[in-house]
Amino acid sequence: MDPRIQGYLENNRKWAEGKDYQAPVKFKEMQKKGRDREDGTVIVVACTDPRVTPEEFLGMSTEAGNKATIVRVAGGRVEAAMSTLLVLSAVGNAGKKGTILLIHHTDCGLATASDEEIKKTLLESVDEESKEEAEMLLNDTEFGSIRSPEKSLKEDWKKLRRSPFFTGMDIYGLMQDTKTGLLEVLFDLRTPIHTRLVSKGYE
Q1: What is the pTM of this model?
Q2: Cα dist. 25→5, 31, 32, 91 in Å?
Q3: Angle of helix 131-138 relative to helix 115-124, nearest 10 degrees?
Q4: pLDDT at 176
Q5: Is 105 labelled as part of a ligand binding site?
Q6: Domain boundaries, the chain
Q7: CA distances from residue 190 to 77, 98, 99, 187 in whole angstroms, order as listed
C-alpha cells in the first residue's frame, strides 16, 4: 500500500479512538435541525485544489460549531457541482432558505488548459481499442476551463441566481487571492444580474 494511504489510515484510527471523538447525530436529526433553522444552512462550493481548503481558510471546526456543507469540484465550477446542489435541495432545505458561498481562486489549474486540450490529453491516455468509447463519453463533457477567474465566477454566480431551484437562497460570489489567502466578495444580493464586470486584476 502507498505509504501516504497507510499514514491516512493510521491518522484515522488515532482520530476515531481519541477521547474527543463522538459519533455524529443521525442524518434525519441533522436534516430536521437544518430545515427548522430560520436562516437555513450554509453551502460552500469551492475548488478541489488541496492548496485552498475551505475548512481551513474559513476557520471551520466542530468545536466552534460553525461547520458547513462543502461541495468541492474542479475550479469550483457550478456545472460540475449542480447534481450535488440539487440533491441538497431535495433532501435538505437548500433552495428554500440558506446561503451558498461560491468560491473561485487565483492561480487555478483549470486556467492552464482549454476544454479541448483536456479532452485531447484524456484521449491520448487510452488505448486504441477504447478510443471510440472514450470519444463518446467526452463528446458532450464540459470541463469549465477558466480564462478569467472573475468572468468564471460571475458566470457561475448568475447561473445559481437564475436557477428556479435556489430562488430562496442568498448567493455570494467570492474570489480568493492565493498569494494573500484573503477572500473578497465580488457578487452579492445587491449585485444586479446584468451588472457589467469591472476587472480587479485577479489571475
Answers
A1: 0.86
A2: 28, 10, 11, 16
A3: 160
A4: 96
A5: yes
A6: 40-108+146-191, 114-142
A7: 22, 16, 14, 8
CA separation for the pair 30, 37 (Å, rounded) = 11
Cα–Cα distance for residue pair 176/17, rounded to 1 Å: 36
CA–CA dist 46, 81 (Å, integer): 9
Q: From 123, 109, 121, 115, select the one nearest 140 (Cα to Cα).
A: 115
pLDDT at 148: 87
Enumerate residue ranges in the chain where pLDDT < 50: none
For residue 192, the model assigns a pLDDT of 75
User: For the segment 70-125, what is each residue's pLDDT rounded down to a tens digit?
Assistant: 999 999 999 999 999 999 888 876 557 889 999 999 999 888 888 888 888 888 89
**Residue 49, annotated as binding a ligand:** yes
Concatenated DSSP letters of 101-156: EEEEESS-GGGSS-HHHHHHHHHHTS-GGGHHHHHHHHTT------S-HHHHHHHH
**Around Cβ 126, how many Cβ atoms within 10 Å?**
14
156 marked as binding residue: no
> Cα-flanking dihedrals φ and ψ of residue 11, to 5°?
-60, -40
Q: Is 47 annotated as a binding residue?
A: yes
pLDDT on residue 137: 85
Architecture of domain 40-108+146-191: 3-Layer(aba) Sandwich (3.40)
CA 189 to chain centre: 19
Question: Are the CB atoms for 157 and 77 separated by under 8 Å?
Answer: no
What integer pLDDT is reported at residue 195 of this predicted model?
A: 65
